[in-house]
User: Which sequence fits this backbone?
């Protein structure tokens, strides 16, 4: 690590210098505490007796080498402030590679060289994701499936890997996104208020075991993304809060010090803080082979406190640009995803062109409009018809990802299925229709665990998913529908290759407000699909439409088939009969209430023409 560049905020490898590193001379401990009077190492192998650390740099870097320290042993730093009014505290290591399980707070010496990956083929081939299907299954590791042999119900990273990978592949997802796996003190924060930005949470095991989980996913053809939180951190005094007796990592008191979640805001105007966060991001991508990061609460970095009326935060946007640009240079095939609810322009534009440099931005507008539409009384949906078409008015502005995440399944918002209008029996056909619309719409996909089961219970970190729902016919059929839809998404090029091209999508018909019918065409080369959606409850609608350059239609999927717990018998013959007219064919179909059809268009389409 270049120490000068560290203080300027330009390094991505600070974890190779700070923290506890195993060498031939013993374990070298280094920490940054520029405002400390003294710093001591407290080490398990030394009976927790304070060992004075030497100040080796005027910027406040302290170091000590302990010849007989061993991997697996615990340690802390005792920091004595150089001013009155702040007590001497024992801290975990900001750069520590392991920590004790809460409520204990010591760091643990870990060797990062203890695991050898076997995923070279995956790592070599993982680029080009914008032209590939990206179907993300968002997981909170502690509540996906309970371990009956553990008092907390947790599996280790190593134990859960084969179960999770087999399930994800069975259901047709090709990426897993884990909610934060950095160390954190409160289970209910889900990892978003961290204390160990280089420490995999000990709830599920060690760094070695987490590497093994990622490796197993890769060898099975599953990509792995990680939630990363560069905005704020936990207020606990043993961690980053007032680390050296001053606001080293956070804003000065009363100046944007605390976030809306009661956590401390990182101060991105300090170079050492930027280097800390950039190095953390690179650490997860480099050391653990994660395939990308979903960065939380990006709007809080773009605007002061996330409030647009307060104006752009130049330190926050500069940090994002520098981090994203550097990560793309170091990890060119990794995904950088912004969870950003603002209208800030250029989030996914390259930094060289004045943008923030993300690969994707969550389309929060699409999510809100779509869910709001499906909440409404069906008999008023014709008045809101264009809530489902509006997203394509702005879709070309950014590289969007469509999220139906954990945030839409908690805190009194109801689960996705529960949000659908009507009673129990009415919710399922509408949810099937919603997901068909989602997978027909351009943009990569993300859904939260349990959605595929048709859960009615809001998610909580204290309970596993409601796996017993699959004994009920409606839920079992719904899960099979989601599985089949996912498989189609993975294997039909038209549903993903043209996500961000003008040729990949068109509204075949978005002028049927009174009938609440929509028609979408997706195309990639000679692969063409037509998707019909009927969102009203007013009986079966006869719909006549024309398809250009078409010699026939094949019915691939119908959301109302009986095997999906619908009312329509699946035909043995799936070829639709139509009338040949000049330039194509005309068809008439019957669309039951709350139903959709996915059709394969036969016949070559001229390049550049629909």
Assistant:
């Amino acid at each position: 690590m270049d120490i000068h560049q560290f203080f300027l905020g330009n390094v991505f490898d600070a974890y190779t210098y700070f923290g506890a590193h195993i060498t031939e001379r013993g374990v070298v401990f280094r920490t940054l505490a520029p405002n400390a009077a003294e710093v001591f190492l407290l080490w398990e192998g030394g009976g927790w007796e304070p060992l004075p650390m030497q100040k080796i740099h005027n910027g406040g870097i302290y170091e000590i080498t302990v010849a007989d320290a061993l991997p697996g042993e615990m340690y802390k730093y005792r920091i004595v402030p150089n001013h009155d009014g702040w007590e001497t505290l024992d801290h975990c290591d900001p750069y520590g590679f392991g920590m004790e399980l809460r409520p204990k707070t010591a760091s643990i010496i870990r060797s990062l060289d203890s695991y050898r990956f076997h995923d070279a083929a995956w790592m070599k081939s993982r680029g080009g994701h914008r032209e590939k299907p990206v179907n993300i299954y968002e997981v909170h590791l502690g509540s996906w499936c309970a371990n009956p042999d553990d008092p907390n119900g947790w599996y280790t990273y190593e134990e859960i890997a084969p179960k999770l990978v087999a399930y994800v592949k069975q259901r047709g997802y090709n990426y897993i996104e884990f909610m934060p796996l950095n160390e954190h003190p409160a289970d209910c924060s889900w990892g978003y208020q961290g204390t160990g930005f280089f420490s995999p949470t000990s709830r599920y095991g060690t760094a070695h075991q987490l590497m093994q989980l990622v490796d197993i996913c890769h060898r099975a053809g599953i990509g792995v993304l990680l939630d990363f939180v560069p905005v704020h951190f936990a207020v606990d005094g043993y961690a980053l809060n007032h680390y050296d007796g001053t606001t080293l990592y956070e804003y000065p008191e009363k100046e944007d010090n605390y976030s809306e979640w009661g956590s401390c805001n990182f101060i991105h105007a300090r170079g050492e803080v930027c280097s800390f966060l950039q190095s953390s991001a690179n650490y997860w991508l480099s050391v653990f082979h994660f395939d990308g990061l979903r960065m939380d609460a990006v709007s809080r970095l773009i605007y002061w406190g996330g409030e647009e009326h307060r104006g752009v935060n130049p330190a926050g946007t500069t940090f994002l640009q520098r981090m994203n640009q550097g990560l793309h240079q170091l990890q060119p095939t990794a995904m950088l995803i912004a969870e950003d609810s603002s209208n800030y322009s250029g989030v996914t534009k390259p930094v060289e062109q004045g943008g923030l440099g993300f690969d994707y931005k969550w389309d929060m507008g699409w999510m809100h409009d779509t869910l709001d539409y499906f909440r409404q009384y069906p008999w008023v949906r014709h008045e809101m018809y264009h809530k489902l078409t509006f997203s394509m008015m702005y879709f070309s502005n950014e590289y969007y990802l469509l999220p139906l995440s954990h945030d839409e399944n908690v805190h009194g918002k109801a689960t996705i299925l529960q949000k659908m209008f009507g009673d129990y029996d009415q919710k399922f056909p509408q949810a099937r229709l919603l997901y068909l619309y989602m997978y027909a719409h351009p943009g990569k996909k993300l859904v939260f665990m349990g959605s595929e089961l048709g859960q009615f219970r809001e998610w909580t970190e204290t309970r596993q998913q409601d796996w017993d729902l699959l004994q009920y016919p409606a839920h079992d059929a719904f899960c099979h529908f989601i599985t089949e839809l996912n498989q189609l998404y993975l294997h039909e090029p038209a549903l993903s290759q043209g996500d961000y091209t003008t040729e990949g999508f068109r509204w075949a018909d978005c002028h049927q407000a009174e009938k609440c019918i929509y028609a979408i065409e997706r195309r990639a080369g000679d692969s063409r699909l037509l998707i019909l959606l009927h969102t009203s409850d007013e009986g079966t609608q006869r719909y006549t439409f024309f398809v250009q350059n078409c010699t026939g239609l094949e019915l691939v999927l119908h959301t109302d088939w009986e095997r999906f717990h619908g009312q329509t018998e699946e035909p043995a013959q799936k070829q639709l009969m139509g009338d040949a007219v000049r330039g194509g064919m005309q068809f008439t179909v019957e669309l039951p209430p709350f139903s959709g059809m996915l059709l394969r268009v036969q016949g070559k389409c001229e390049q550049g023409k629909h």
Q: What stands out?
A: The mean pLDDT is 95. The CA atoms of residues 508 and 519 lie 5 Å apart.
